[in-house]
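agent: user wants the structure for 2-C-methyl-D-erythritol 4-phosphate cytidylyltransferase from Parashewanella spongiae. delegating to structure tool.
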Amino acid sequence: MSQSLDHVVAIIPAAGVGQRMGANIPKQYLEIDGISILSHTVKAFLNHPKVDVVIVAVSKDDQYFDQLPESNHSKLVKVQGGSERANTVLESLKSASQLGYEDSWALVHDAARPCITRRDIDLLLKSRENYPNGAILAMPVRDTMKRADSSSLIKNTVCRELLWHAMTPQMFVVSELQKNLNEALNDNVLITDESSAMEWAGINPGLISGRADNIKVTHAEDLQLAALYLSEHKKNEIQGENS
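agent: tool returned. relaying tokens verbatim.
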């Protein structure tokens, strides 16, 4: 039975290896305060009351996911990812459709963004009222932007007005994202995020200003920063409970 647009599916593509991190294991399994990055990320969605199911896509050779305490959670579904992120997301969307969630909302979130807060998830879900075609979390560009040439020499300064840094989650209806992503990949379109597939199909998603600490762990130094943010989040949660 198809679920309605009141339902929400979280999709976390975690089939990558994170080569820029330079670690001997996929970066999503590196630990922050004794807990893997992926566990931090997955728990944010498993613990959200409006998320019905969390689909985590891992590589076929993954040896780590089943060791995570969240792997046996009743809301979690594991699927096999593809060769690229877009293919991995597409496999996850197919799984969501098979589970009856084709008419539900998908929140696609990077596995290596462990600092996502409930507040930002709530903001994105609330935006469905204003952006029925979907929306993404993003941050307005704050710094001066430069365009370089092939020799890394500055070519010109780019006006930062109306420029945004795209983040995740990115939220679209499962069936619509699946259709547009599949067709874009078949046409060999370069898909850098889920929104780019929707934009290719002529849809203009909304932009929701999110927290700057929703960082993506890409380089080794990001681990320390993510640990700091997660510590602050935990402290704020405790203070909120005691207030």
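agent: one observation worth passing along. The domain at 8-146+157-242 is CATH 3.90.550.10 (Spore Coat Polysaccharide Biosynthesis Protein SpsA; Chain A).
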